Amino acid sequence: MSHPPRRILVTGALGQIGSELVHALRARYGQDRVVASDIRYAPPEAAAGWEPFAYVDCTNAVQIQEAVRRWNVGTIFHLASLLSAVAEEKPHVAWNLNMGGLYGILEIARENGLAVFFPSSIGAFGRGTPAEHTPQDTIQRPTTMYGVTKVAGELLCDYYHQRFGVDTRGVRYPGLISHTAPPGGGTTDYAVDIFYAAIRHGKYTCFLQADTRLDMMYMPDALDAAIDLMAADATRLVHRNAFNVTGMNFTPDELTAEIRKHLPQFTIEYQIDPVRQGIADSWPDSLDDSAARQEWDWSPKYDLPAMVEEMLRELDAKLSVSDP
Ligand code: SER
């Protein structure tokens, strides 16, 4: 007797990555195969489009276990997490959610034979890390609570793989740029906010310095990274948690110059937030993602000009409907 394929559960499905990853997974594997879950409910007008949907608080192991049983889950994309700037404001909440949530997910994965995708971040680097061409295997001494939870998360995922054979895999995402859902309080959020401000007001006040260089990625590449890594041939994987991936790197000044090619009147001014500037200064300028390229054929499609062109086009269309 053949069994139906087990489903995919996405936690944090209403967040910046999740709200697009659920649709990308459903496009690849079928609507019914992918269960969206979050601690929030989808807005009523959108709820029908989110089915199947499970209300899950990731810090509550019973709720995760129930969702896994009820939906016959085989893989979890565990996205629920606080981002860097918010985690600095509420470090104890960040520890509970980022670590407590992951631990519960890994335990349930061990008991039920699940695969787990865990997104780490450029935030897993810090003092002493080479800032340019940051190697796959290097010093990781982050100075933020977000970074501490990401390094610990990488290690815990590797531990569950080595000790219990759980199929854990992850990437270190850079700043993610998208036009669908907003990021939830990160240091790289300026690279999303700037597009809304450019279209709505023609000017933007940036909280990072003009010359702060960071890795970034356009969301379609971030979705491919997660889906392709989880589908990759396990026998080729030397690393697991977590692979450096990047799509581009730029400074606020360089992003402004690219936006001005489309909106010549656009202006930027700077009002530095010392907390987020300090976080950004502790992160790399450019990751070396050759391990991901070698082990699972990672290859991003969007560079800075392609990303800016599409962001402006998509947001212009979206905002002309929402702010007529
Ligand atoms: N975008 C994230 C942040 O700024 C980095 O992983 O917190």
Note down, in words, how this protein is organized:
This protein folds into 2 domains: 7-175 and 218-244, Rossmann fold (3-Layer(aba) Sandwich), CATH 3.40.50; 177-216 and 248-283 and 302-322, Alpha-Beta Complex (UDP-galactose 4-epimerase, domain 1), CATH 3.90.25. Helix content is 44%, strand content 18%. The protein has helices at residues 18-29, 44-47, 61-70, 84-89, 91-112, 145-164, 190-201, 219-231, 252-260, 274-281, 290-296, 304-322, and strands at residues 7-11, 34-38, 53-55, 73-78, 115-121, 132-134, 167-173, 175-177, 203-206, 214-218, 243-244, 248-250, 267-270, 286-287. Helix 2 (44-47) links the parallel strand 2 (34-38) and strand 3. Serine binds at residues 83-84, 121-123, 146, 173, 175, 186-188.
Quickly describe the structure.
With 324 residues, this protein is an alpha/beta fold. Helices cover 44% and strands 18% of the residues. The chain folds into two domains: 7-175 and 218-244, Rossmann fold (3-Layer(aba) Sandwich); 177-216 and 248-283 and 302-322, UDP-galactose 4-epimerase, domain 1, CATH 3.90.25.
